[in-house]
């Protein structure tokens, strides 16, 4: 059976060019970047070049990039690293932010969660009015991982700047899919991850604007300018940098390709199936995200039927999560729990084709029809 | 979380789907807000279930347990149907993931409600 991967927000395949770039760093250029000898120097050169590449992709300087183990660590480092004061964040952040905020609350810190509108958009006015004398950090994600809504981060960044507060954004989903410039967008701290952009898993970065004081999480040998002790994962970092440079190089081509497929998918589903709603913002969304909710059916059932046809998607339904809680993002949008259960997220990637989307459009109406035929909620 | 082959079979090819318009008993359990709702319809003759249908909104486990419940209940006496437990249904499906045992294994309760409605008539 042919298999179609439409879950690129979960993770992506590593680009073959990226793999080729990484390979010598396992077996030939394997030195420790802290060593003084030539093996160490070679590794250090690769590390420095990679840091420059990632910095360039973000409009930052090389010495403002700290390599980490991924998005979750970058988020933890940003939030825990700003050692004191009140934090403002949004109600639809990734668990890497929300769970960290809850941890900080348990340790006596105050956190305000600003709401979003029904498209998943944060209102910068709400952020500004949540600021108190004690506020030290605002953290609002760039683009949401479930619904793809892109937040007005530049505006939020300039509010933070006006009030002398640090601004962090989780850009794990947006990196490579929408333009980022940390200077123009008034960003002080920004998290990115490699495995969402066709790079290897286990590597990411935190941009820390020069002059911003952050407490490290990891103590040890003083790696990463003292911000993150641990021998650098050179193959991973080199792969991440290669993936970032390919994302920059292919940005326009990727955006056109993904937007075309996404629009084809959304229009095709709407044309062939009744009672379908798009979750998230109609226009201010990632080019590869189509989060759709199908009335009267449950998402795990939809997901498994699609899986039986070789199509991989994800769902906001409680029934597929270990916790059995419905998606906190869709709840924050004000969607009724019974409707959240019928939500499916399709996230497209560089390798998807029109014929794959046609296949999805061919099998999906039948699957939804079959589930609605046995649903006591579908009238008539 | 992994489903057994039997769960996937009953999920993909559910038995006894539908409604019975003049049923002798109807039972509904669950709540769409929680993600699972099942209605069971029974027709009864001489104290035995002669026809049974179901409709389910829910996950694969909810659909499969409803399908299996109708298979197990068909031909049973009303007392026999009342004795059919959630665990019997789960066992007949070669088990359910632990997380699904409580929330999605509702069909036996819907069957009991249908039987009780029939007995009350």
Written account of the structure:
The complex is a heterodimer of chains A (380) and B (121). By secondary structure, chain A is of the alpha/beta class. Chain A has helices spanning 16-22, 24-27, 38-58, 71-81, 95-106, 124-129, 153-162, 234-249, 251-272, 299-308, 328-332, 337-340, 354-373; strands at 4-5, 65-68, 86-90, 111-114, 135-139, 166-170, 189-193, 204-208, 276-279, 289-294, 311-312, 314-315, 343-347. In chain A, the strands form three sheets. Chain A has a seven-stranded mixed sheet, with helices on both faces. The mean pLDDT of chain A is 96. With 121 residues, chain B is of the alpha+beta class. Chain B is 44% helix and 22% strand. Chain B has six helices and three strands; from the N terminus they run H-E-E-E-H-H-H-H-H. Chain B has helices spanning 5-12, 60-73, 78-83, 86-92, 100-103, 107-120; strands spanning 25-31, 36-45, 48-57. Chain B has a three-stranded antiparallel sheet. In chain B, a hairpin with a 2-residue loop joins strand 2 and strand 3. The longest helix of chain B has 14 residues, at 60-73. The A-B interface holds A 296-298, 300-301, 304-305, 308, 317-320, 322, 324, 326, 336-338, 341, 373-377 and B 1, 3, 8, 11-12, 14, 17, 28, 32-39, 54-63, 99, 103-104.
Please give a quick description of this structure.
The complex is a heterodimer of chains A (380) and B (121). Chain A is 39% helix and 14% strand. Chain A has 380 residues and is α/β, with parallel strands linked by helices.
